[in-house]
Design brief:
The protein has about 425 residues and is an alpha/beta fold. Helix content is about 30%, strand content about 20%. A hairpin with a 2-residue loop joins strand 5 (about 185) and strand 6.
Length: about 425
């Protein structure tokens, strides 16, 4: 299968360079000539400044198309198309140039789309046909090496985001060269082949510059540990449910939220991250204050969860503070990874001022998870797997509708709170 032909790159801002003005001969320049030269030098400097500030994002989505993904084929096509649409909308809103590459892998690796303007990318319907084994490592390496060797960073401010999505474990990298899988039925049959690719990915991942972000979605905790061994940062690894259609929906929702966070982080000067699958780390307190209206201080209470409160159930804990408990009134502080259901709300706690401020509602959802993950009804369009990013000024709280949720304290935090709406 041949890569989809790239869109023509005409009139890209990164191609606009004003030529320098040269004079020959030794005659004296007139004042008009000097003014003209000054104007052109200024024009060149302005253009150079634009080129330096112009943000270009290169996104590579690397998708497993081994035989076990056949049951998800139509869903994968649909959610990837939705992901691309969301990427386009976020890029337009921020004024970025975003280019996307799509790779698919079974026992071989194919580039389906190469560095195309996200605005021009058609549906991948007809391009994604699952079958075969799993060359996970080779696909991860090839997509990174292609971007490194083929993309010029001479003009513009470039960042690179690779997201790998797999439902299984590596077993076939090097199949084309060796003619066989290195692992069969869980048993290594060609140690030399496997060791070569393990060494290769560790070397490539270890050599990535700071403005390169590599992330992966895997189906289990064991696969997460394996991915860490390859070199993927722990904060850039998310676990998804590979057995259900709902799991596919949640997986791409997680990627959409992460990509939104990545693009917004670029506005704050962050070009790469090792905590991609986290929320809140890219929120700017000034943006929050400008976009959201704080709740009246009498409408909520912050209850500190002390060491002695750990593992208490949420309802008796709230009632100990003379508050009649109602399901949905309490919001737990986001820490380690959780799945936020579509019916849940969030709240943002601003701790940067003299007194804490709390924001909630559909606009808070949009700010935290991105417009593309919130529907017209002001609710999440699907469940998201998220964890808290580090932000010294803001905290994210997630609504709980349980009566017996066990209270936890967040490791590394001086204080953990439960937010209760009155």
């Amino acid at each position: 299968m041949k890569p989809w032909p790239p869109a023509k790159r005409q009139n890209r801002r990164s191609d606009r360079v004003v030529s320098a003005v040269h004079y020959s001969g030794n005659h004296a320049r007139t004042s008009h000539e000097n003014e003209n030269k000054t104007h052109r030098i200024k024009e060149k400097n302005v253009t150079t400044d634009i080129l330096k500030k112009h943000k270009v994002n290169h996104v590579a989505l690397v998708i497993d198309k081994s035989g076990s993904m056949q049951k998800h084929q139509s869903t994968v096509v649909r959610v990837v198309d939705e992901f691309v649409k969301g990427l386009k909308e976020e890029s337009d809103a921020l004024g970025h140039e975003t280019r996307i590459s799509l790779y698919a892998f079974d026992h071989n690796v194919e580039c389906l789309v190469w560095d195309m303007d996200v605005k021009a990318l058609p549906s991948i319907r007809g391009l994604y046909r699952p079958d075969g084994a799993t060359s996970l490592i080779q696909a991860s390496v090839l997509s990174l090496e292609d971007l490194k060797s083929e993309i010029s960073e001479k003009y513009g401010e470039h960042s690179f985001l690779q997201v790998v999505w797999t439902d299984g474990e590596e077993n076939a990298s090097g199949h084309r060269e060796y003619g066989n899988m290195h692992t069969q039925y869980g048993r290594v049959v060609n140690r030399r082949q496997l060791d070569y690719w393990l060494s290769k990915i560790q070397s490539v991942m270890g050599g990535l510059p700071d403005h390169w972000t590599s992330a992966i979605l895997v189906p289990s905790s064991l696969a997460k540990r394996t991915a860490q061994g390859y070199g993927f940062p722990a904060g850039n690894i998310a676990i998804w449910d590979a057995d259900t259609t709902k799991g596919v929906e949640e997986a791409i929702g997680t990627v959409k939220a992460a990509a939104t966070s990545f693009l917004r982080g670029r506005e704050a000067g962050v070009r790469g991250t090792k905590n991609l699958f986290a929320v809140g780390q890219d929120l700017d307190v000034n943006v929050v204050r400008a976009a959201l209206k704080p709740l009246d201080g009498t409408k909520y209470r912050l209850l500190e969860i002390k060491p002695g409160d750990v593992d208490k159930e949420i309802r008796p804990f709230v009632q100990e503070h003379n508050i009649t408990y109602k399901p949905g009134m309490a919001y737990y502080q986001l820490g380690s990874r959780v799945t936020v259901q579509a019916s849940k709300n969030v709240a943002v706690l601003d701790m940067s001022g003299a007194k804490p401020l709390v924001y909630t509602g559909p606009d808070a959802l949009r700010l935290v998870f991105g417009d593309e993950n919130v529907g017209p009804d002001g609710r999440l369009t699907g469940a998201l797997s998220v964890k808290a990013g580090h932000n010294p000024k803001l905290r994210i709280f997630v609504q709980s509708k349980s009566v017996n949720r066990k209270l936890k304290r967040i490791a590394g935090e001086k204080e953990t709170n439960l937010l209760v709406m009155l």
